[in-house]
Structure formats: C-alpha cells, structure tokens
Amino acid sequence: MLGEKLAICEARVCANVATDPTRHFEIDPAALIAAHRAARAGGPAVIGYYHSHPQGASSPSATDIAMAARDGRIWAIIGAKGLRFWLDAPHGFEALSLDGKAG
Length: 103
Fold this sequence. Notes:
Elements: E1 2-4, E2 7-10, H1 29-40, E3 45-46, E4 48-53, H2 62-67, E5 74-79, E6 82-89, E7 92-96
Parallel strand pairs: 4-5
Antiparallel strand pairs: 1-2, 1-3, 5-6, 6-7
C-alpha cells in the first residue's frame, strides 16, 4: 500500500512468492524494491501491506505476528468476514479504524 503516514492512496497487487502461498505470504522482492525506488524518486511511500485469510479472521495470525517487522506500517487483512486495518507497532499489532485512529 502506498501513501503518506496512515493515508492510503494506492494499493498495488504483487505476487505472493512464499514457498507455500496458501499458508504464508511473501511480497515479491522485486516489486517491493521497485515501490521503494519510486518513493525515493518522489512517488508515494510504501506505508503498508495487505493480504488475505480467506477462511479465517481479519486479524493477524500467529505467523503474521512472528514475521512482523514492528516498523509502524499498516497491515490490511481481508478475512472471511471482512477487512480490518492494523498498525505494526513496536510492541505488537494495534487495531486501526478506517480513519487511521487506534481502537
């Protein structure tokens, strides 16, 4: 997801290159590098990532929690019952409302 601070202006589709994409996600490194290069050239910043849990909850899974960078970026998770946004905060994930506020 691209934008500024907690304001998303674009969500780009990227390939999931994880060894087992049904259980994990790994953004194609080439796509991620290209997005960061575009940001350095004046484009919108990489402010977060999105993925789905088709049969599960729209909350971070145990794998998501273990793999999180704690870098302050937004994670959008699409679950069986909808979409939720999370802040990957230094102490763990915090739920965000659609207006970007914690809660």
